[in-house]
Write a structure and sequence with these properties.
By secondary structure, this protein is an alpha/beta fold. Helices cover 49% and strands 15% of the residues.
Length: 641
């Protein structure tokens, strides 16, 4: 007998139930039924209709609803839970009703007016995982929601649920609209997996639980390097402590076997006495490295200890008392000792591999200290701080012409200067020379390739730029800085969605990122239409930190969100700072791809920027692109709004 094919559809499924329904029915059956009917008539049914849903099944204390759009399904769930919270606030406790809701996007089979399959089952399991009054969303739904909802979603891990063989990615909808302070995924250590499996088996045998959520184990050791304490007290030793901390992080993050928290996220603990277990919980890491540095009479004393944040036990500790010129050997030994504490699945890392991955060390301590100071000046960029940074970094390369990090940061400073009013041609040429020098000096330095990619991209050489940035990611896939370089140009490479994904990853790795990183993060979100996120990352900067592009994208984001007054005020301030800023100027920027140019033109029009460039500005373009309204005889610059 031939079985006819099932009628299948890809649908968004919302599953809801009432918390404590049986108890409420036992206490007041008639009143519970009446309250449910009133809620359906006044609240849930109208909300479902507004969001184009259709009720598939009512089950006493629950409901199954289908939507053609996952955005409609989650928006409906959000509306219902917020309305229920407001309704309950005005009622005495016995009359309150609380829902749990799960939402999934999946394939379902339609049989005699009912829906079956994993698409329905996953929604039901997510509803059981949801908190009272909460909404739980599946990973497939999350993948289609990016940039389409105002409420953020927190990843709570991959859950193993009843009757579903594969783990289910789960996200909690934050109904208060606020993002969690820490969004790093909680990692279960490998040793905990057998324990969790055993517990799940016992729970099933006892018949106590319908399902047992188990978070997946992290595949990598995770570590946070706390700022080294400066026991010397002077600023020079403080810079050495900061530089040594950063370089240890860099050495560790080059190893793909580690998840290493960026320095800016551990800087919040600088000079503070904090419990290591609390730090582990806050940063979601298993291991914490802490230590100190002291410099006296031409010698340095460095101590370091690696601590298991779950138990508080010391895994390893060591101290060094060396001549100050041995600082870099000490740094290498610290990284090597930490790496040796972990059993890698591929076997021990050979010294030759470490040597290839590690940056070359400067011959002069003066160059090292000058580089640290120069970097410090452009972490929160302004015209003045960038100029000061370049002055210091030029002294660093003069002190040690073979020190690649000094050239890397000099290239970065020149590159930033072009965005803050410096001559573009001169800045770009100087940045290119410094970046190429850095790559020649140390071909294995990821940041050297990253900054070269940055400069090439700013020149419109996107193919070469992508090659360099891809190389940087291969050399150091865990580097926040390298990721931040790449995501700013992902749209130019035709990968805007990847740019936004990298931005999310960068913030997850380094929630305390410095203002300089906001530029790339802002742009990545701007290019995929996540305008709220673009504006949010700008909060790390002050108006003096904004480049001309930042002003353009800030105004455009406000305008795209319908925040007209704020857009107009931003345009006014942008023109005060950059009087020649027009839509045509941005349209002729060779660092933009066609798609990027179009996004800027559209949002600048919405914001109200002047369209036409002055004749003397147009004359500087080799092949000027003119807007239709700016063609000869149609509109003169003086007529601009």
């Amino acid at each position: 007998m031939t079985v006819p094919p099932l009628d299948r559809k890809l649908l968004a499924i919302l599953a809801a139930d009432v918390v404590g329904y049986s108890k409420a029915m036992e206490a007041d059956e008639a009143g519970t039924i009446a309250r449910l009917r009133a809620i359906r008539a006044d609240l849930t049914d109208p909300a479902i209709a507004r969001h184009h849903g259709r009720i598939v099944k009512l089950m006493g204390d629950g409901a199954l609803v289908a939507f053609d759009s996952i955005v409609d399904a989650v928006a409906c769930a959000e509306e219902i839970q917020k309305a229920m919270a407001a309704r309950n606030a005005a009622l005495p406790e016995p009359e309150r009703m609380v829902f749990r809701i799960g939402v999934n996007l999946g394939d379902v089979a339609l049989v005699d007016g009912d829906f079956y399959g994993d698409g329905v089952n996953v929604a039901a399991r997510l509803e059981q995982l949801a908190e009272p009054g909460g909404v739980m969303v599946s990973g497939t739904a999350f993948d289609h929601l990016q940039g389409k909802l105002d409420c953020p979603l927190d990843f709570i891990g991959e859950q193993q649920v009843k009757n579903i063989a594969r783990p289910v990615r789960a996200y909690r909808l934050r109904l208060d609209g606020k993002r969690a302070r820490w969004t790093l995924r909680k990692a279960m250590p490998r040793w905990a997996i057998p324990v969790a499996v055993a517990l799940a088996a016992l729970a099933i045998l006892a018949g106590t639980w319908q399902f047992w959520p188990v978070e997946m184990a992290s595949a990598k050791p995770s570590i946070a390097v706390l700022p080294l304490n400066n026991y010397g007290g002077d600023e020079a030793t403080g810079r050495l402590a900061d530089g040594l901390t950063e370089d240890i992080i860099t050495d560790l993050s080059r190893m793909s076997e580690f998840d290493v928290i960026a320095r800016n996220s551990t800087d919040v603990y600088k000079g503070k006495s904090a419990d290591v277990r609390e730090i582990g919980r806050d940063l979601k890491v298993r291991y914490v490295l802490e230590g100190s540095i002291q410099r006296q009479a031409g010698r340095i004393r460095v101590t370091a200890q690696l601590i298991d944040s779950e138990t508080g036990a010391h895994v390893w500790s060591e101290s060094w008392d060396r001549p100050v010129q041995d600082l870099f050997a000490v740094q290498t030994e610290i990284a090597d000792h930490i790496i040796s504490q972990f059993e890698m699945t591929t076997g021990p890392i050979k010294s030759v591999d470490l040597g290839a991955a590690r940056r070359k060390r400067p011959k002069s301590l003066t160059a090292y200290e000058l580089t640290l100071l120069g970097v410090e000046k452009h972490l929160s960029p302004t015209r003045e701080s960038i100029a000061e940074s370049m002055e210091i970094l030029n002294k660093a390369v003069a002190a040690d012409p073979g020190y690649a990090p000094a050239w890397i940061n000099l290239a970065w400073a020149h590159s930033m200067a072009a965005n803050y009013g410096a001559d573009w041609e001169d800045s770009n040429r100087a940045a290119m020379e410094a970046a190429e020098r850095a790559v020649v000096l140390d071909p294995n330095d990821a940041e050297a390739h990253a900054v070269l990619g940055e400069v090439l991209a700013s020149r419109g050489e996107f193919a070469r730029a992508k090659t360099e940035l891809d190389m940087a990611l291969r050399l150091n896939p865990g580097s926040f800085s390298v990721i931040a370089y790449y995501l700013g140009w992902a749209s130019a490479f035709g990968e805007p969605e990847l740019g936004a994904e990298l931005a999310d990853r960068a913030i997850r790795l380094n929630p305390n990122y410095k203002p300089w990183a906001s530029s790339g993060l802002r742009y990545a979100y701007f290019m995929v239409g996540r305008f709220e996120d673009a504006l949010k990352v700008m909060e790390r900067q002050t108006p003096d930190n904004y480049s001309k592009y930042a002003w353009v994208e800030r105004a455009g984001s406000f305008a795209a969100l319908g925040r007209t007054t704020e857009a107009e005020a931003t345009v006014k301030e942008a023109l005060r700072r950059y009087p020649d800023l027009t839509i045509e100027m941005i349209a002729n920027d060779q660092a933009f791809s066609a798609a990027e140019t179009q996004r800027h033109i559209e949002t600048m029009r919405l914001a109200g920027f002047p369209p036409c460039a002055k004749p003397e500005v147009v004359a500087k373009f080799a092949k000027p692109v003119r807007l239709p309204e700016c063609e000869a005889g149609k509109m003169q610059p003086a007529e601009q709004p």
